[in-house]
Amino acid sequence: MRKNSFIRFNFCFILLLTLFSFQTDKNILLWEASRPLTWDDFKGKPERRFAAASTSYDILKSVSKKEDNSAVAMICAVFFKNQSWKKASWINDAVLAHEQKHFDIVELYARKLRKKIKEAAFKNMTDLENRLEEMYDVNDKEMDKYQDLYDEETDGSMNGEQQRMWQNKIMKEIKDLDVYKETSVTIKF
Fold this sequence. Notes:
Blueprint: H1 2-24, E1 28-30, E2 53-54, E3 57-66, E4 70-80, E5 85-86, H2 93-119, H3 125-154, H4 160-176, E6 184-188
Antiparallel strand pairs: 1-4, 2-5, 3-4, 4-6
Helix pairs in contact: 2-3, 2-4
């Protein structure tokens, strides 16, 4: 019993440490429905060749094996403050709403990845790690295409009608995947 308690404690400690490190890094902001972006989150140096603002984001993943023939995957949508920037002459609510949707798309694709993981069957930890990389790469490419389509159709927030349509579309898609909002996914082998 003591060994299992130690292993369980170890696993929980690693999981909490991973979450804590994301949350305490002042450069990284985890996606939260109740915490929209503000212009203060954009701390990077503006690039001349772009007009208004840029959002730097990613889906971070980690996997931990548990002692009961299972594993937990942590899939987090994150925003990088120091790599995200804005130009003072373009600071307005419309541009900020546009950048928020870029971050929301990251959460949408984090949920899609969690769904794919949850629906897949894995033989063991090695199989999980290998296939998770493949799933992540495919998901990342799909997300990039979706981000590009969003920018193209909204003309970078300049087309107000399309911007409103996309805002509703993205939020509906996120809501449709609400069952996958938790950042952790338990996998049984």
